[in-house]
Amino acid sequence: MRKEVFYRVIIVALLLLNFGVLGYLWMGKKEMHQQGGPEGDRRKEPAGFIIKSLQLDEEQQMKFEELKHEHQRNMQMVREESKNLHDALYKELHKQTVDSNEVDSFMQLIVVNAKQREMVNFNHFRDLKTILKPEQYKLYDEFIEAIARRFGPPPPHH
């Protein structure tokens, strides 16, 4: 019985998290349209922000475009897998009796998928550093710190 309550709490938490993300994305699209649509200020886009922050030259921008497309392909695969896992998880709710082992299995796969998503992002930023010139490394370090502050707690200072 305690396991069932635990899983119900996890499912409700995941639903709330999903609704929060959807709301954030919806508000972001609404804001983009208010700024003049998708062809608005390029600096508002992640790619434009990266190009400006790292002061990429034309050659670096071409290499960055390749990295960006590879990152987008990899993220699309991870998102599709995430969608399939969540669909399978929530189909468990249609059953008369929920199999807690099956739910636990889906939860573990969702955690693995989240790890894959983070690895795709980490590898993208690691690959981005390889196209930089040594004089851009300080800009890169500042950029990474800004990203870390935006998506998580600040990195420890040594």
Can you describe what's shown?
The chain is mainly α and 158 residues long. The chain folds into two domains: 1-40; 42-151, Four Helix Bundle (Hemerythrin (Met), subunit A) (Up-down Bundle). Helices cover 77% and strands 0% of the residues. It has five helices and no strands. It has helices at 2-34, 46-54, 58-91, 100-129, 137-151. Helix 3 (58-91) runs antiparallel to helix 4 (100-129). The longest helix is centred in the middle third of the chain and has 34 residues, at 58-91. The chain is elongated. The model is unreliable at 32-43 (pLDDT under 50).
CA gyration radius, whole angstroms: 20 Å
Question: Tell me, what is the CATH class of the largest domain?
Answer: Mainly Alpha
Q: Total number of β-strand segments? A: 0
Order of helices and strands: HHHHH
Assign the structural class, choosing from mainly alpha, mainly beta, alpha/beta, alpha+beta, or little secondary structure: mainly alpha
User: What would you call the quaternary organization?
Assistant: single chain
Domain count: the total is: 2
Helix content percent band: over 70%
The biggest sheet, with number of strands, parallel, antiparallel or mixed sense and barrel status, is:
none
> Could you say which overall geometry the principal axes of the C-alpha atoms support?
elongated
What is the count of DSSP helices, taking H or I runs of 4+ residues? 5
**Low-pLDDT segments:** 32-43
Overall pLDDT confidence = 84
CATH third-tier fold name of the largest domain: Four Helix Bundle (Hemerythrin (Met), subunit A)
